[in-house]
Amino acid sequence: MTRLASIALLALLLAGCASRGPASIAGGECRIFEAPKYEVRGARDYDQDWIDSQVEGGVGGCHWNRPARRPAAIEASPAPRVAPAKPARRGIIRRIRDRVLPTRSTPPAAAAPIEVPPAPVIAPAPDPAPPRPPRSALERLLQPRDDD
Question: Around Cβ 4, how many Cβ atoms within 10 Å?
């Protein structure tokens, strides 16, 4: 009876090891992600680290093949930069107004503030200590002081 109970207990403990691996409701996480066909490059170091961790996770966990080298078409030089647009021409009224009216003069700059040294802080004199209460003859005998 003890053997049968221990075998049943051992079977229950090892039943979890007989599964096919981790799976989600959809039948496995590996079905959700698509393996990259070629190497993916990130724009910044952080992007590249994240991409590398995702690819390595897929290679290790989902048994993906490693991505192939990037095609030459992707490695081609980037498109030339577009020249900035020419500023728009001012309207006719603004052009006439700018010629007829004088230009606005800028007001003179304000004078720099004068630094005043801080006033010295005068602390009030401390109050004199109150006189000590008189001591009995017994206190003077047990705890002598210089002022006794």
Answer: 8
